[in-house]
Amino acid sequence: MEIENLSVDAVVVGAGVLGLAISRALAAHGMSVACVGPDHTTPGTASSAAGAMLSPISEISPDWDKKGNLEELEFRIRSSAYYADFLLALNEDDGGSVFYTPGSVVIANLVNESDRRTLAAMRAAAHRYGLRAEPMDPDDVPGLRPARGYDAFEALFLPEEGAVDTVQLLRRLDGLIRATPRAHRIDTFVSELLRAGDRIVGARTAGGSLISAPVVVLAAGAGVQALMDGVREACPGLPRLLAGKGVSAVVTGMPMAYPHVVRTPNRDFACGTHVVPRGDGSIYIGATNRISGTPGSADSVTPGEVHSLLHAAMHEINTGFRAAAFRSVTYGMRPLTTDYHPLVGRTPVPGLYVATGTYRNGLLMAPLIADIVSREVRSGAPADDNPFPADGRLRPANPLGDSIAGIVEEGIGHLASFLLEPGGHLPYDRYRELRSFLIALGRVATDEDDSERAVLRSKFAATPMSEIVPQLFYELADRERAAPQDTRR
Ligand SMILES: Cc1cc2nc3c(=O)[nH]c(=O)nc-3n(C[C@H](O)[C@H](O)[C@H](O)COP(=O)(O)OP(=O)(O)OC[C@H]3O[C@@H](n4cnc5c(N)ncnc54)[C@H](O)[C@@H]3O)c2cc1C
């Protein structure tokens, strides 16, 4: 939809959950707003591909209590507490309620060696923040019927977590904005930000219309980076945004109901396998996770991604998914900053605000972020409860510095996990051995000292490669395992 030129109090760029929630919050405080962006059915929109789990605790990893991780966990807990009122207010207006599923069950199985540690971390975190986390017999988890060999050995019920139906939520927010007299919902892309001196003073739409406003909020998900690039020199130090592509599916025809979310913990790359009931009786299955740039990532769903998603759902959650009917398969680009934390509020550029970097938790965080951004816009000052300000935030230094050995070691740890997908099994203790073997090989390749290479060369000279590989596998893996703890990953 194109428009005549327009003048408003604020332009919000993007109509995913963040753009819509921010537009609504600003309009609720009497501001005239133009929310500019294609609607949520546009391919690549993260919000509509999301399971929309509201997961402060079940999103954590074993290193949850490190600085940075802890701040984000606390922000998720605050976001979760904020949600009840947000939903209540939405559901009070005419126009239908947004379906909410109470409770999440997290299962641990042998697909990933860290599941047990991650569940222990969830229990510890829940205890620390006074949240409920109740052990459950995996046999009692409704809808859990994994394939042989994929049995869950532990389950944790988190009654205060849950999920919303993301499509209903987006439709509802979109409809409310369209019905607000002060708000304009404009279904097009923004091509450029307008500047006057050092200030941002509005936006140009893809059709060439000009919208002037003293405030522009960038909430265009992974699309924020391209818009920021235009004003890059004004905020040179900000962390860059990447796109973490996620594929999900919605199916119908499952013979059982899911009264709660059922999910695995997050694992290296993936965001865990999860099954979420939707308001119309369909079931959402999520999700893959790859930083875009991998083959097929750009603008479609690949067979490999669908295979990985369904393999996990059918083996780890319920073999019955074999006979379900597809309603949709979709993908979204999760906005991810290089320091892994959201970017919220004022930027160093006058008139420019940002709300993104929510990665796996944007549905959960949207109402609280909208409240923070709305307060910063109205006061013009930083909100003292914003833990992720964009003003003054610096791109993190690479923790590995220039160390090639460190990069190889870190990369190989992830490579070993990547090689296990889907399925996750190597016989015996071979996952660890493979990782140790590859790390040891990486060291040989990157070490200044040539003596290791000389030993290897003499082994290869003495024995055919096909015979020496198993021996080397155990030898190098054993040596790596015996290395002092602090030199290991
Ligand atoms: C598969 C998957 C599962 C997920 N599961 C969960 C979950 O269970 N719980 C949770 O809390 N979070 C989840 N997330 C993360 C969550 O979806 C995101 O963090 C959140 O949706 C980001 O919202 P957004 O509005 O910033 O971005 P988006 O939803 O991506 O919206 C941005 C919009 O801006 C538009 N846009 C881009 N460029 C421009 C431009 N120049 N002009 C105008 N518009 C533009 C895009 O087309 C898009 O429509 C999941 C994400 C995925 C992909």
UniProtKB/TrEMBL annotation:
All copies of domain FAD dependent oxidoreductase, residue ranges: 9-374
Keywords, comma-separated and alphabetical: Oxidoreductase
GO CC entries: cytoplasm
InterPro entries named among the record's database cross-references: FAD-dep_OxRdtase, FAD/NAD-bd_sf
Key word Nucleotide-binding present: no
Gene Ontology molecular function: oxidoreductase activity
UniProt entry tagged with the keyword Acyltransferase: no
PANTHER family noted in UniProt: GLYCINE OXIDASE (PTHR13847:SF289), SARCOSINE DEHYDROGENASE-RELATED (PTHR13847)
The name this protein goes by in its record: Glycine/D-amino acid oxidase-like deaminating enzyme
